[in-house]
Amino acid sequence: MDELPGALGTSASLALRLGQAIFAVASLLFMCLDIEFYSYTAFCFLVTIMGLVIPWSLTLAAVDAFSVFVKRPTRQPGLLSIIIIGDWVLSFLSLAASSSTASVSDLLMASNGSFCTGNLCTRYQLSAAMAFLSWFLSFASSLFNLWLLPTA
Amino acid sequence: MDELPGALGTSASLALRLGQAIFAVASLLFMCLDIEFYSYTAFCFLVTIMGLVIPWSLTLAAVDAFSVFVKRPTRQPGLLSIIIIGDWVLSFLSLAASSSTASVSDLLMASNGSFCTGNLCTRYQLSAAMAFLSWFLSFASSLFNLWLLPTA
């Protein structure tokens, strides 16, 4: 089997996973370091999904790091299918969460009332942007793994 | 080549495409049969995306109908790749649009001010639900076509 960059167990995949986790943590930090986020459904959704993405990406990053540094790539098609399905589900959920957050923060900004005290809305938008980047990386790694599936 | 149900040129694919177009039209009708939709960015986004989904799905439904009834399934890998990429892009965009619309209408409903006169917000929610169903069907047909690609 030739090594497809980005598939499970390669260093490119390790980089993708770490990028997902870092962007998800950044999104959580931008969202959670104030008090008001739980009064909006979309923001709670974003926090939930990012809280799911972080352990998932870190676990797979650990698998990749083990496979890169200890040099034992064990790929079973069953395990790969589970990883692909989990990646798909999480990537769709994070896309939905980031677009919900973006639209709600845009609406809060446009209605220039007392919602955005200080630069809260900018932080919401940054959080949505980070979640979007995390979605993009997660989508990339699920595509690479899907490409690998017929050859595994 | 065995006939995979749901792939390009089969009757299942024709049903999927017609379902996408019908749900997209329903979403547009629920959204557009009043005046206020263009004051919210998320709703304009939904209208734009549904306006893209409808001609795309109808064109591919016409291709499928031609292929089913006139019996000439011509599948070139290049054409199939274009259709798959278009399906993916449109499905991601419609997922983002439907979740944006759902979160904005939820926020408008929760803020029980003067935003929802009559049952406007229920119609926004119905429109988001229709867009979500259209996304689901579009995702299904893109998955079937992607499955077909290695064998084409």
Automatic annotation (TrEMBL), chains A, B:
UniProt GO cellular component terms: plasma membrane
One Pfam entry name: CASP_dom
Sorted UniProt keywords: Cell membrane, Membrane, Transmembrane, Transmembrane helix
Membrane-crossing residue ranges in chain numbering: 79-104, 124-149
Places the protein is found: Cell membrane
InterPro entries per UniProt: CASP_dom, CASPL-5
Residue ranges of domain Casparian strip membrane protein in the record: 9-137
UniProt topology in membrane: Multi-pass membrane protein
Coarse class of the protein's main subcellular location: membrane
Domain of life: Eukaryota
Subunit structure: Homodimer and heterodimers.
Family per similarity comment: Belongs to the Casparian strip membrane proteins (CASP) family.
Protein name in the entry: CASP-like protein
